């Protein structure tokens, strides 16, 4: 059973989410504030987190950052904040998706299913299971990245992007294809998502993020991986 942690202080919304999620056979825990969310994350190890940014005890972005130190589970931000700058801040802090209120329950459930799919293991041929560059190593089976002998923590969305690129070395992957594969059909034009996440991957993996050698941008077209 997939376990979902709902972090939201609106009692009526929590009730609606719990009813809809349990009806679809999800296990659900609910937290009305950030401190409870962090405690439940440690205790229950959720598979997905739905996180409101307007919490009573601490800012949602701070909760998101602390969650990223505790779990690699996908985090779907659910908020009334609509400014593009707010979205970039949340994505940069480790969110995997951003859903604005009011929202349709069917859309939220579709985003949730997509987030769960991105974390499911994929069979990999042994000869392509480990990809090594001069700066980092990627183990596609273990879903593990090391750089300079140290483990690199990636969010599920960062991993999804990196995995797609690495599985097609030297091939240009169009922006729209990446957006559809990672975020789904409703995000086919949101290229700012790609810019944010590729910048995060470069900061974590490239020796000189401003002059990347492995995660290459083809302006206006897409991205490719060079080994």
Number of strands: 12
* Relative strand content: 15-25%
> Helix amount, in percent?
40-55%
Terminus-to-terminus distance: 38 Å
Q: With helices defined by DSSP (H or I, 4 residues minimum), what is the helix count?
A: 8
Oligomer: single chain
| Low-pLDDT segments, ≥5 res | none
Mean pLDDT: 88
Structure description:
The protein is an alpha/beta fold and 227 residues long. Helix content is 41%, strand content 21%. It has 8 helices and 12 strands. It has helices at residues 11-23, 34-44, 60-68, 84-93, 105-118, 156-166, 175-183, 191-205; strands at 3-7, 27-31, 48-52, 75-79, 97-100, 130-132, 136-139, 144-147, 150-152, 173-174, 215-218, 222-225. A 5-stranded parallel beta sheet has the order 2-1-3-4-5, sandwiched between helices. Strand 3, helix 3 and strand 4 form a beta-alpha-beta unit. Helix 2 runs parallel beside helix 3 (60-68) and helix 6 packs across helix 8 (191-205). The protein is globular, with a radius of gyration of 18 Å. The model has no long low-confidence stretch (mean pLDDT 88).
Q: What descriptors fit this protein?
A:
227 residues, 5-stranded parallel sheet
Brief description of this entry?
This protein has eight helices and twelve strands. It has 227 residues and is α/β, with parallel strands linked by helices.
Topology of helices and strands:
Elements lengths: L2 E5 L3 H13 L3 E5 L2 H11 L3 E5 L7 H9 L6 E5 L4 H10 L3 E4 L4 H14 L11 E3 L3 E4 L4 E4 L2 E3 L3 H11 L6 E2 H9 L7 H15 L9 E4 L3 E4 L2
Parallel strand pairs: 1-2, 1-3, 3-4, 4-5
Antiparallel strand pairs: 6-7, 7-8, 8-9, 10-12, 11-12
Helix pairs in contact: 2-3, 6-8
């Amino acid at each position: 059973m997939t376990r979902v942690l709902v972090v939201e202080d609106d009692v009526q919304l929590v009730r609606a989410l719990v009813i809809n999620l349990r009806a679809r056979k999800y296990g659900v825990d609910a937290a009305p504030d950030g401190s409870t969310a962090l405690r439940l994350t440690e205790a229950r190890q959720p598979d997905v987190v739905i996180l409101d940014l307007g919490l009573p005890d601490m800012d949602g972005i701070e909760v998101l950052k602390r969650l990223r130190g505790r779990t690699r589970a996908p985090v779907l931000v659910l908020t009334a904040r609509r400014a593009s700058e707010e979205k970039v801040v949340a994505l940069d802090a480790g969110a995997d998706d951003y859903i604005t209120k009011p929202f349709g329950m069917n859309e939220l459930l579709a985003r949730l299913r997509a987030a769960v799919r991105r974390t499911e293991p994929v069979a990999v041929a042994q000869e392509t299971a480990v990809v090594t560059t001069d700066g980092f190593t990627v183990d596609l089976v273990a879903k593990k990245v090391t750089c300079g002998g140290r483990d690199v923590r990636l969010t599920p969305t960062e991993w999804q992007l990196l995995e797609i690129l690495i599985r097609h070395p030297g091939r240009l992957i169009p922006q729209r294809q990446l957006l559809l594969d990672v975020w789904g059909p409703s995000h086919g034009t949101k290229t700012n998502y790609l810019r944010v996440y590729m910048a995060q991957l470069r900061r974590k993996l490239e020796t000189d993020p401003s002059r990347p050698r492995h995660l290459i941008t083809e302006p206006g077209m897409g991205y490719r991986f060079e080994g």
